Amino acid sequence: MILGSAAETESCGAACAKLLRAGDIITLSGALGAGKTTFARGLLRGLGYAGEVVSPSFALVVPYDPPEVGLPVLHVDLYRLGHSEDLTELGLDDGLAQGALIIEWPERLRDGCYPEALAVQFEMIDGQQRRLTASSPPTWKKRWPYPA
């Protein structure tokens, strides 16, 4: 899918929010500035969050909890993760038990970690346009409306 602007990227994230369930994981990959945080912002807006959504680059994990969102979400940025072994210290499995995870820079994870995730890849085409491709696992096949 081609997204022509940041607004379209955010709208795509908001549409994805309607599909999100407790226990879901969405991974967002792509170069710096490719649209990962913009998509996450749209998703959180789609869940009802009205505040500012920024990349959790320095905090690594930013929680969003009811009543500000309809479903608890941990927004995770693994860009600065030192070692994949440090992942257990972030408490992501605890957050996943009651809500969903949005993980930016999943390539920093161990291979095979979270194979059940909807894996969304962003590729910059030009200054505004982005190509979104996704790999949807069985739990997402019937929900994810966009072609892979």
Structural class comes to: alpha/beta
How many helices? The count is 4
Tally of extended strands?
7
Helix content: 10-25%
Query: Major sheet: order of its strands?
Result: 1-7-6-2-5-4-3
What do the pLDDT scores average to?
85
* Quaternary class: single chain
What does this structure look like?
The chain has 148 residues and is α/β, with parallel strands linked by helices. The protein has 4 helices and 7 strands. The protein has helices at 6-17, 36-46, 92-98, 138-141, and strands at residues 2-3, 25-29, 61-64, 73-77, 100-104, 118-124, 130-135. The protein has a 7-stranded mixed sheet with strand order 1-7-6-2-5-4-3, with helices on both faces. The longest helix is centred in the N-terminal third of the chain and has 12 residues, at 6-17. The radius of gyration is 14 Å and the shape is globular. The termini are close together.
Quick synopsis:
The chain is α/β, with parallel strands linked by helices and 148 residues long. It has helices at 6-17, 36-46, 92-98, 138-141; strands spanning 2-3, 25-29, 61-64, 73-77, 100-104, 118-124, 130-135. Strands 1-7-6-2-5-4-3 form a seven-stranded mixed β-sheet, sandwiched between helices.
